[in-house]
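User: Assemble these into one structure.

Assistant: Restating your components, then the assembled model:
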Amino acid sequence: VTSGSLADRAYQELRAAIVRRQLAPGSVVVEAELAAMLGVSRTPVREALRRCELEGYLARDKAGRLVVSRPTPEEIRQLFLVRELLEGYAARKAAQRISTAELAHLDELVQNDLDALRQDATDRLAAINAELHETILIASRNETLFALVSSVRARVDGLQAFAVGMRADRRRFVDEHAQLVDLLRDGEGARAEALVRAHLRRASEVLLSGLPDDRGSV
Amino acid sequence: MPRANPDSSTDGVHATPLAPIERPAPLAQRAYDAIRASLLTGGSSSTERLTEEELASGLGMSRTPVREALHRLALAGIVVPASGGGYRPRRTTRRDVIEQCELRLELEPTAAMLVAERAPDFADELAHHPLLMEGADPLTELEFHVAIANGSANETLASLILAVNDRFAVHRVSLRRRHSVLSWPSDGPAAIVAAIATGRGDAAARAMREHLERVQTAIVAAVDEAHGVTA
């Protein structure tokens, strides 16, 4: 195994831990502990930390320590405005360009969404949500879009997990995912765009209206 | 990229302080800025193969910061690895410029709207922008659009607009080098500034959208001409 692929793996593991909230927002990240956790040397871990810092998953506190990022209300508003623009566009284009295989994959995700909702499996809802939104970005067939969104992925992932975590709104979000897939199948670009925009606006309102205590003081 | 600024005093689950992590060296940033500016102004490096050795000696620094700068330029979609080593500027394709124009049309009208609504006086500053005083070259154009993006006070929006404009400017430079005829909509920027000055978000968004639609028509025509495509 080359050091490059070890660093990749360390990066993917670290990012997943942040997105799944195994590392809480604001917590200090320690290179040696991560290396022990992942069973690799400190060199690939150092690379992984640096990449996560560049991508915004991690930030420096006043003492210069690396900590897991915590979004502010203003950042949530700003991010969701951008998501509305880009994901609305993606849905509009995807309605014309999505493949049969992608539609089948989305159907499967909607089914998993319903199962996870019944079982109240919040982590799985978050993961399915992220995959569903990403599938639509890819189905827009705009490769530049995908590259650009990857550059702000850090905040997007964290916030998707948040929004799905709100008990009262989960049912509605899952229903909207199912409606969206139907609109894409029917080639209804304008209506798919409008639904995505409303969906994301509600998600940001949910995030801003009050988060559980263990998720910090946003 | 802008990022969260977490509160340092809470939620510390780990007690041990971190060992120092290497941060991006200022030298690498200088190398990045210099190579990017050269590519976006059509300097000597904008057609050739970019190698660490030559860039390092040209910039008077070691190869390490140059290597980092080239890696970041590749991540930004400005250069791509060249066969036989090093990098070269990204080649212009019709699909690339259409994708970029479509994304600019999604993002930039909203930026113009936000500037008009929150800071219409910013138009005074924009009115003295070199783009309006001296005319269009790709880097000046990019800076005009990035100035409006930054005026939106939405950092995520601004960073995406900068990223897509960086990619777009590389193609503008390459088309100019091939002497493709660009019927550039040169009155667009002044119309955008005038609309921002009214403080009406919808007017500013519309002026930006109309300008970018004309930009899209012009650049697609130029790409087709450069590639010998007849419409």
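Chain A touches chain B through 52 residues (CB under 8 Å).
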